[in-house]
Amino acid sequence: MLKSQFKSMLALQDTMNTKVNPEWRTAGYPWHRAIFIETAEFMDHLGWKWWKAQTPDITQAQIELVDIWHFMLSDTIVRADTIDEAATWLSFKWHQPELGVYPGDTLRLAEMFAAVAAQNKCGDISLFRELCRSVDLDDDKLYTMYVAKNVLNMFRQDNGYKAGTYVKIWRGHEDNVWLAQVMKDHPSFGVDELRAELARMYASVSAGHLQ
Asked: Which of the chain's ends, N or C, has fewer CB atoms near its CB within 10 Å?
């Protein structure tokens, strides 16, 4: 991944966090806790319960990794003096050689990642990169999906997410599922087009249906 892509994502994340709380950098948020919980949700989408039938949903598992990436970006910003410094550090860590200590099983890798996050109070870049690769989330796709999810997150905030008035379930499915469908149906959509489509769909939700 290019440093310019890291810088772009970091800037988007800073804007998103500032919308939620202008003083977010000094709020002391437990990013590692959010990472830990999102990792459990990632595992749920892969299917680990031996007592029930489950069908892995790789797209939603990828989106959970993108959610984790939001918190890792936030943590990186807090630890750096500038966005450029944060981008330089991420680029360096991302392109470090693999250590070759990862288990072949994605669920075991997720457990390792969550344990390290809880112990070190931050997400491990190399383990996260390996998790992405385990579900076919390459660098370009991570960037594309991050930008799309950032659009959804901003849309949520603009429509009452923090106040608790936002409707997250659209016709029986979480908005993440609809986001993935829009990306699949319209792969060439830019930020403005994606936001417009989400607005159209949300208006249909408000009216009691989705067209």
From this structure: C
pLDDT tens digit sequence for 108-159: 999 999 999 999 999 999 999 999 999 999 999 999 999 999 999 999 999 9
The pLDDT tens digits of the residues spanning 57-78 come to 999 999 999 999 999 999 999 9
Query: How many whole angstroms separate alpha carbon 180 and alpha carbon 200?
Result: 16
Task: Provide CB contacts within 8 A for 157, sequence distance 6+.
Answer: 16, 19, 20
Q: Of all helices (H) and strands (E), which one includes residue 81?
A: none
Q: Which burial class, exposed, middle or buried, applies to 123 when counting CB atoms under 10 A from its CB (0-12, 13-18, 19+)?
A: buried
Domains and their CATH numbers in the chain: 3-146 (1.10.4010.10)
* DSSP per position, 161-184: TTTT----EETTEEHHHHHHHHHH
DSSP state of 99: -
Q: What is the pTM of this model?
A: 0.89
Residue 143 phi, psi dihedral angles, 5° rounding = -65, -50
Q: HSE (CB half, 13 Å, CA atoms) of 74?
A: 28
β-pairing, 169-170 with 173-174?
A: antiparallel
